[in-house]
Fold these 2 entries.
Entry 1:
Amino acid sequence: MSSDEIYQQLSSIMRDVFDDDSLVATPSSPRGRLTLDSFSHLRLMLSIERSFGVDFAASEISSLKNVGELAALIGSKLPAERAVHLAKNRERPVARVSRLVAVVALLLAISRSHGWRSALLLVANVGFVLTFSHDLRQLAPFARSWRGFVAMRLMHSQKNPAVFATAIGALVLLFCWLKRYTFFPPGALLPFVYLTVGMSYVFFRVLSLVVDAYQDSLPSASASCVSSTIR
């Protein structure tokens, strides 16, 4: 695949992700578009991986200085035989999400049952996440949320201040690690790009449930669920 074709593909991806038809990928385009500090920037890297059929290590992305280096990295990972299969008719992410929302809205109207709506919204949320990636590795951070449930069970059964402080500290440390805070050495971080959309909300929600469990102030449904699990 030629360098020009890589830049054309990158331009198309950037226009879709940032919803700006004026964007053009050039060798000197700044690094700002390549960071993982926001929802759109993360989507950009995930879309590039999916479109080109390549995988990036976190260390590779963090060392990029401009789009020229990104294009060179893609070229080094791209087998020549895959060139003809590159996302020629790639669908815009916004179009997929819009259709998903429309289908969910229609299905919600079928029944007012709490069970039906809860199940439908659960499936819709999973479907929404899968519009960003089908790679289970990139969904790994959310698989670690079970630790919050373990901490909530522990706080519900034990009221030891030391255990409570340890559980809160462990959850905060896990969150900082997944968010790649700079006090962690690069070698200690997950060596691939992963989805962080909604991670802060999930973290603070889990944290609040752990505190509520320790203070015996969980909502009745959550408390009964935890109690039945313990028994």
Entry 2:
Amino acid sequence: MEIDEIKEYLGELGYEVLNLEKIWRHYTGHLKKEDKDYFFKMASTIEISPKTKNEADWNKRVTNKLSVKVPQIFQEAELYGLYWFIAEFVPGDTLASAEHPDQTQKLEDNLEIIAKTALEIMNLKFEGNNLEFDQLEFNQKLDEWTLKSERDLSRLRQFLEDRIEFLQLFPSHGDYVPWSFRLKESGELYLVDSEHAKWNYLKFYDVAYFYHRVNTKLKNPEIANRFLEAFKNIYDFSENDKKCFELALAQRLIGGNMDAKFDNLTSIELQDDLQNKLLAGEIL
């Protein structure tokens, strides 16, 4: 779909389009209506539409249930089968970015609330959270990442398989990283980009994901360790919990090996260092 078509459509709905662009899998934009700013997001393909809708659904379900805010959803529909939503516009900076790994003060100032929010997400309870875990899809992803990484990950794969019996299923945001948090000038902290949220997925997935990304993509093991300590201060890991966290981190390390090959940001050296510590039982 052409951007001009989308602009015309939004104009018919009464919105002024201040900015609209296609970024990877979505069209995103800054809209205005009756002197109020809005955020627009639309899937670029019918196949992506369920993920876009998942983001809006997750935001609606967790509103006012976390220590941080999520953008309020105001309007949603489909245009030629492409799902879209209009939400609260959240100006402000991300807490950190992999492109600027030396700029971490905002992230460091908010590690405790990030840890607290990860626990709050994990403890969310809703009717309909009893979706089954898709073991086949999980294994297919591992196979895909292993193949694309072109590295010998057999020890890591065996480590993960040895812990699959400890699998526990809990809600997760799915993309829990510093660049999914936006800090407004007012001091309000928002969690965005929840298209990968799941209601029944690996327990501690968000914790492991954040820990792994800060360590290997932001390239700051010290801050990653401080985050994990902040989480441990509010959550007492049982022995089974430790195995479950190790399972989630092993999954993220397998994916991270693929990322290191393609994103030009993830450090393969830090990947290997973290993997060695995990295999040696030195993380928790």
